[in-house]
Structures are given as C-alpha cells and as structure tokens.
Amino acid sequence: MSNNNNVVLITGAAGWLGSLLARTILEDPKSPNLYLILADILKPEAPRGTRAITIKADLTDKTQVNTLFETDFGVPDTVYCLHGIMSRGSEDNFDLGLKVNVDAVRLVLDAARHQGASAGRLIRFIFASSLAVYGGPLPHVITPDTIASPEGAYGMGKLVSELLINEYTRRGFVDGRIMRLPTIVVRPGVPSAATSAFLSGIIREPLKGVETTCPIGNSLDSPELDLAAWLASPETTMKNFVIAKHIPSEKFRAHTRVVCLPGFTATVRDELWALEEVAGKEALRLVKFKDDPTNRRLVSSWPARFDNSYALSLGFVVDEGGMVPVVQRFKEKVQAGVA
Ligand SMILES: NC(=O)c1ccc[n+]([C@@H]2O[C@H](COP(=O)([O-])OP(=O)(O)OC[C@H]3O[C@@H](n4cnc5c(N)ncnc54)[C@H](O)[C@@H]3O)[C@@H](O)[C@H]2O)c1
To answer: Which domain of life is it from (predicted)?
Structure first.
C-alpha cells in the first residue's frame, strides 16, 4: 500500500507511448517510490521490478473506469490520459472515435474529479492531445493564440476533450495539463491506424530491410514530397511527459492549460534524405510510392511550423539536429533488436 504521494495512473498503457512512459517515469528522480496503475483495453505489461498494478479495462465503461481509482494503491495523484483511437481509425469509424477519444476521456476526468475530492486532493490530469486540432486556413507559424478548428474526427475529438479539461481545471476539479503532441517518429513495431503512420513507416521498414509504400507522391521526384510535418522523437516526448508532471500550475497561461509540445519541421523529402544519409541508397530503394489523396488531404491540413517559445519557457525540451539523429537512434534500436 502506498502513502498515496506518488501514484501514477496511465491509461492506454498497453499502447506505444503509454508503455514507454511507464518505463521512463520510473527513472524520474523527482518521482521516487513510484506506484503505477497501468490500464488499457488490452492487458498492459508492467515494467519488471516495479510496484505496478495492471488492469485490463474498457474505458468507455464507467464501472471499469472507477476500478482504476479503487486499487490497493489508493487514489492516484497524477493521471496520464493516453488511451485513444488514432487519426485514421477515428476518421473511418466516427462513432468509435467519439466513444474513446471523448466519452471515455470524460469518464476518466469525472472519476479523477470525484475520487480526488473524496481523497482531498486535486489530481494532476495530463492529456495527450494532438496538432490534429488545427485545420483550415492557418498562419505560417502556429502560436499559442492560433485558434484550433479541426478538419477531421480525430482532431475534433481531441479538441472537445481539451475544452472539458480546461473547464474542469477552471472549476478546480482537476489540475489539467494538455500537451498537443507533434507527430512522434520513429514508431517501432507494426504500422498504427494513424494517418501519419507513414512518417515512421518510410524510416522503420527500410531500416529493417523491408519494402514500404509512401502514400505521398508517386516517385522520388514528386513535388508532393515537399509536404512538411511537425515532428518530435519518442525520447524527447518522454522527457516532456515527465516534465509535464512537475510544472507548477501557476506557470501556465491563466486561461488555458494547452501547450503545444516543442517539435521540428521536416518534409517527407527531408525524411528520405535522412534515411539515405544514415542507411544508404539501398535503404532508400525500399521506399515505393502510391499517392493516397485521403491520407494526403488529412496530413496536409495539419500545421508543420510552431513557435516553440511558450513550451520552452515552461521547461519543455526540443529535439536538436532534425531528422538525421532521430533516424540514427532508430537504426541503433533496430541493430539492438529492440525496435
Ligand atoms: N504517437 C503519436 O505520434 C501521437 C501524436 C499525437 C497524439 N498522440 C496521442 O497520444 C496517445 C498515445 O498514443 P500512442 O501512439 O501510444 O497510441 P497507441 O494506439 O499505441 O495507444 C493507444 C492505446 O489506447 C488503448 N485503447 C483504445 N481504446 C480503449 C478503450 N476503450 N479502453 C482502454 N484503452 C483503450 C489501445 O488499446 C492502445 O493501447 C493517444 O491518445 C494519441 O492520440 C499520439
């Protein structure tokens, strides 16, 4: 049983970022004696040697959500709300996207509000949002004042949840921290249902010696390859997830807890250059092209340039050196058999 001072609940803990976070947060010197509650619709794995409870739960079900706050570890002081249906998944199955990306977030939020109140604490509620909240005509560079008007079901769901978290924070129900994530590359494993999955796939598969299809453009010379994306590496993202837990609440802007996590701009062509630089022409030859207009429309509607200064002023960190170090680190993981 914990003293309830360092109990972290991660939803979506069987997913990529959730499972990475479970491992990363254990190394956080500012979170000693950590107790982890790991929940997902798929049974999450606990990092070895940790005080962790893993719970298989469908978070669209209120009763199952409540169990996460009623374990032997007591009421968590921090919730990382990471469960979700990715962009293409939400676009293709609108009802499921709403259920998981909005309704289930509200259930977790409400449980945090009520259970936190019963335990006499304001639970930190850290939410993984996305740059997909932006759409329509946008300025060249997104600033904290740019209005978000999504052009897809995924971004809409994230924005609805953001509004709820901001309102719950304003009312003193939770201490919300909303991180609008760049697209995180390079994702290991099999391709996800994200529209942006190819941004990882065109690096990951060739580094594994496997052919892949780039859905942007029809050849290496296509002008469509100039499509730019806003990216961050998983290593930097994990540092920022941990930093989000420790930012004093008074440092956020008064009216919103939204922060666009720092990232960098790279075009599809920049990614392919980085692949060639790190792994040579042979790797590049494994990238085939078949333009997918739906995919291209969605990714093109997302912004690719942000002003990082507000996030950096809060203490968040940024990748240095663009795509090449990101590809290099992933190549090392492939060679070590951990990608
Ligand atoms: N990876 C990225 O580039 C990126 C970018 C922006 C935002 N995000 C957000 O970050 C979060 C984590 O992303 P990820 O890449 O780890 O995604 P992921 O798909 O690997 O993980 C999401 C997890 O949510 C779980 N889940 C889905 N429905 C559920 C339900 N009903 N009940 C319980 N669990 C359920 C899934 O089983 C999965 O394990 C997501 O909310 C995502 O929208 C990710």
So the answer is: Eukaryota
